[in-house]
Design a protein that fits this description.
Tetracycline Repressor, domain 2, homotetramer, DNA-binding, Arc Repressor Mutant, subunit A, 9 helices, mainly alpha
Chain lengths: 182, 182, 182, 182
DNA sequence: GATGAATGAGCATTCATTCAT
DNA sequence: CATGAATGAATGCTCATTCAT
């Protein structure tokens, strides 16, 4: 593992354990010196931004794959919901970071926008080819599709519900009902 | 306005302007002394917690009223979605605080749990009397109902979509489709 | 118990528990209001001083009694040492306060000096009538007599030795050896 | 002088002048920045602890030397008493710190215990080889030997007696009388 | 006598950042 | 590339004291 990777991993650990990515924590957990962290990332915000982008890229890669595997509209819609829930389950620290680190999101700035735009476009493309899906504005489609999964993910990450697995089918079905053509 | 109220208002203003509720800011905006803030709230966390509870109480009061006005299932479901969106639109600072101040949510602790439980119970009661609504687990119902509105609220508060008004009907309808009995 | 007494007791409790006599603590423990404490004692230093004097008076009263009971020089010397050790054992919180509250000693000021002078005089009077005791300067006599007991009291109060009872005889004998005429 | 030493010296000066080791004082007197103090000592308690240990080590070194120079039991006992009194006279600020900074003693914690234990052992070793000294428990021997000197040191440091020099012989003799075999 | 809101100086601590080696 | 000493602004908190009721 390279120094960079060690630092990013330490930052994630640190965020998970303390809710922040203070440089002292990162230093302690990665074994890198303050100067080294600065050398590689330019500062605390740089670390947070890089981590945010790296995680988001990983998450989004799976979204595209899920769409690629879809054999019909219902399958695609359900697949996206399930993928989202499973990713959160398998990557709780990463999910927490994406959802809770407002500072990192800000720091990620432009690159984040670019990533989101490109994903939105990919999804929009796919939807366009699905006559079984009602025509909805992009953001509305996104919100109806993943909003419930997102909300339950938050609850699960906060320890307020015991399992995401058990709600997968319910959410997939609800999303399909909400967006399908009658 | 009592000292307490002045302090809470100042904290909200401060959060809206700076993203934090630093005591110096609260002091400046409320005109209260540090000691006075401590006297009434025991510290920064106490202020944040009190503000969180106060805002949440206001929001939840409206939810109960909205349910009371509902004349049938579809009306009730749509009413909740619309109420949520309108409350956010009319109270953007309050909404931002609820959604973004993780520290305040933690500080609000037990009282928050109690409020949420009691609201959940009220909604569950209402749902029970509606045969036109599919039977879903409490949290799933909540997530399907308000998750999309919540997600769009976040986007709107972040300035990423221009209007919540325009999506009200779409979200109300989508929620109804998702939860109604076939 | 009068308000004054409640306050003094609360101050002692507070010192024993926290190492200080902060007014908030005293307030909490005594049930008296800040204003009331000020009314009776004029401030935190006033409470500390009053407590110091009260405790010292109690201790010194016993010293005089012990001297009065002495039937000869050896008995008197041993009695003082034993009294000291027993008083500490029976009043550990009070002893701790006298030994550790530098602030209180300063606040006790003039009244403390007066008490000490009068006790010194009483002891000196007694010594004068004892030809079996070597002639030593006042402070040296005091130090040789009670210094060891004082030091072991400190250790015991700090939990560093298990029992004062067991050293009573040793210290009484050592004091007598140190001050007796050959 | 290294930064660390400058900071420790400033802390001692500060304690002597104000009775506390407030960080602002240390900063002012040492010229070091707050951050630097934290970098080296982790906080105010860390500075106090380090200073306490350093001073105690110096004092104890002399004790061991004094024992090494002793040519017989009486010489050794007297030497320890004299060394104690002279060290206090030559290092009044250090002595005051050791005797009055309860917070520092607490902060010094484990390292302090270790130092004390090792000194106790050295003294016990020496005593064992002296048949002219009565057999006394370790703490009792320590208290009888140095308790009086300690008590007079306190009085002298508080300005209540004019000279320690004049009592050296008295205390040395008294200690010897108290511990010698008949 | 009693109450408690209000004040503000004082203090410890955290943290991102810089820079000489 | 790496290290760690040094900096100082920002921040939260404690506490004795005052005073109107």
């Amino acid at each position: 593992m390279s120094r960079q990777e060690e630092i990013l991993e330490a930052a994630l650990e640190s965020f998970d354990a303390t809710g922040t990515t203070a440089i002292e924590e990162i230093k302690r957990r990665s074994g890198a010196s303050v100067g080294s962290i600065y050398h590689h990332f330019g500062g605390v915000d740089g670390v947070a931004a890089a981590l945010y982008i790296e995680i988001l890229r990983g998450y989004q890669g799976g979204v595209v794959q899920a769409l690629g595997r879809a054999r019909n509209a219902e399958d695609g819609v359900g697949g996206l919901v399930r993928y989202h829930l499973r990713w959160v389950q398998r990557n709780p620290e990463r999910a927490r970071f994406l959802l809770q680190s407002g500072a990192a999101r800000v720091a990620a700035g432009d690159e984040l926008q670019a990533l989101n735009r490109s994903l939105f476009a990919a999804v929009a493309d796919w939807v366009e080819g699905q006559p079984a899906i009602r025509s909805l504005r992009g953001e509305v489609f996104y919100a109806v599709l993943l909003g419930p999964a997102q909300e339950l993910s938050r609850l699960w990450l906060a320890g307020r519900i015991p399992s995401l697995r058990q709600v997968e089918s319910d959410l997939a079905e609800a999303a399909w009902r909400a967006v399908r053509v009658d």
